[in-house]
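Incident review: delayed structure delivery

Summary: a single-chain prediction request sat in the queue longer than the usual turnaround. Root cause was a stuck worker, restarted by the on-call engineer. No data loss occurred. The affected request and its eventual output are reproduced below so the record is complete for anyone auditing the incident later.

Affected input:
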Amino acid sequence: MKLKFVYKNKILASMHNYSKLLMRICFLGGLFIFLILGSFRAPQATLRDKNGFVRIFDGKTLDGWEGDSTYWSVENGEIVGVVTPNTLLKRNTFLIWRGGMTGNFELKVDYRISKDGNSGINYRSEEVKDIPYALKGCQADIDGKNQYTGQNYEERGRCIVAYRGQKVMLPNVMVSIQSLVKNNVWTASVLTGSLGNLDSLREHINESWNECHLIVKGNRMQHYINGVLMSDVTDNDRANRKFRGLLGVQVHVGSPMKVEYRNFRLKELN
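Output delivered after worker restart:
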């Protein structure tokens, strides 16, 4: 009877030790899963600022961006696009953000451009088949002489849909794009209001750094420079408008130039 009792105690002790070991394994496993999940969530929390903007350029590399390295690089925490006398373009080329698509969003970015420079920020755009780093779609226009800065231009599409200082509505059309583009202007645009004189609005644009702020939601596109609304478009053209697409920055055909971008911040809107 004594042997049976000792044997029974040994079995109970072994079961108790096994239960403790199992509990430790479960605890450590749960802790491991918690830490792993936490490590995935942490970067999102640190990247999003108090106003909901996420930085999409790390200031050091072009990770998450794609373009021709002949023209695009990172210098001093800035995305730099350069065209030299030896690298003149035959067609416009873009540095494309590969981190997602733009639909309803706000974008804030600082830029500086040389006097002869021509650039722009494309959004809700699509890639052009068989042409590397080419985009087709909406663009916030930027140029060094500030003839076009702030206007709404559709690359490889409806061209200038709103000059700086214009509030316009784009009606639905049932004919080809080519038939309504004259001298690089979309003739179907309907002027619905004024945001100011073309020249007076130019006074708000600096020769050095400026902030471009885009608010794009539904069929409305607003382009701000240094907090001043430069163009405002309501797009009712069901045949040609896009509600979702790629984001990219441009260097343009023409003279040698340099454009710099920094502090890219993007916020999705409902």
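Verification: The chain has two domains: 1-47, 54-268.
Action items: add queue-age alerting; document worker restart procedure.
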